[in-house]
Prior knowledge:
The protein is 73% helix and 0% strand. The protein is built from 14 helices and no strands. By secondary structure, it is mostly helical.
Amino acid sequence: xxxxxxxxxxxxxxxxxxxxxxxxxxxxxxxxxxxxxxxxxxxxxxxxxxxxxxxxxxxxxxxxxxxxxxxxxxxxxxxxxxxxxxxxxxxxxxxxxxxxxxxxxxxxxxxxxxxxxxxxxxxxxxxxxxxxxxxxxxxxxxxxxxxxxxxxxxxxxxxxxxxxxxxxxxxxxxxxxxxxxxxxxxxxxxxxxxxxxxxxxxxxxxxxxxxxxxxxxxxxxxxxxxxxxxxxxxxxxxxxxxxxxxxxxxxxxxxxxxxxxxxxxxxxxxxxxxxxxxxxxxxxxxxxxxxxxxxxxxxxxxxxxxxxxxxxxxxxxxxxxxxxxxxxxxxxxxxxxxxxxxxxxxxxxxxxxxxxxxxxxxxxxxxxxxxxxxxxxxxxxxxxxxxxxxxxxxxxxxxxxxxxxxxxxxxxx
Length: 413
C-alpha cells in the first residue's frame, strides 16, 4: 500500500513529457487545460439563479480559496520531502496512512465519474434539442421511442454507450491526450461564438436581470463554481513538471485569475443576453442556426472523446484496488454502464453540476487540503494559520451539507 510504481498515473498533465522541464507558459497551458471544461456552459444559468453580481462574488471567492488550498498541498509535499509523493492519493497516504489514501481515492472516483455523468447529460440534452423535430424525426426513431418508452435524450445517451465501451477500453492515457487538447480548443471556439451572440442579443433586447438572487441560492452557486474549478487533484503533478518551481505559485495564481475573468465574463454576458429565459446549457439558447448547430455538435463531439480521459483516474484506482493494478476490460465496462445509468436519471445539467460541486468537489477542494495542512504543520503554525485551516475545513463541511441538500432538492423537485 506504499508508493509503489504504478503502470499509469491517473493525474499526469496532458501536455507533460514526464520530466520537470515545463516552462512558465507551458505550466499555464497545463493549468488551463486541467480546469476549463463543460462546466463553463452552466455558468450563465447559475448566474440567473444567483444574480449576476452575487454570481461574480461567488466565482472569485471560490477561485481564491481553491488557489490557496492547491498551494497548501504543494507546501505539504515540500515539507514532507518525500519524492514519491506524485498524486493527491500519495499525499493522503503520507499524512494519514491507508485511510487517507482511501478517502482521496473515493472522492476522486465520485468526482471524475460525476463529471462524466454531466458530459452524457449535456450530449443527450443537446442532441435532443437539435434533432427532436416531429416533422423531421424518422419513423424508426419514433417506433423505438414508443417501444422502449424513453425520451429523445435517453436514446442519445444510450446511443453513446457502445462507442464509449470501445473508447474506454484503450489502455493508456497517452493515446487519449490529444483528444483533451482538441476538446479545449473546441470549448474556446464555442465560448467565443456564444459571447459574440450574447453581446449582439444584449444590445438588441437588453432583458431584465437581477444582481442578487437571495441567500437561499448561495450554496447552489458555490456548488456550480466548485464544479467549474475542480483541479485540486492535478496540482502536485503540475508542480512536479515545472522547471522553476519557486515560481509555481505565481503562475498558478495568474492562471486562476485569467480563467476566473473569462468565466465571469461568459456567465454575466450569457445571463444578460437571455435573462429569465437562460437555459441550463447556454448553447441551447442560441437557436437553430447553422453556426449554433455546428457549435453544439462540436461540443458534443469533444465531450464524447473527453469522457474516457476523465474516466481514466477511476479505472486506475479501481484496477489498483481490485485487480492488482492490471488492466481489466470488464471492470471498465461495468463502470461506464453505471455512469450511463446515473446520467439517465438526472434531469438537469446545471443542477447536477451543483450537486457534484457541493459534495465531492467541496471535500477535495477545501476540506482535505486544509485538514492535511493542519496535520503536518500543527506544531509550527500560529493561531492565525490554525484559525484559517480550521475555518476552511468548517466552511467546506457546511457548504458540502447545505449545498448537497439544496442541489438534491432542485433535482428531485
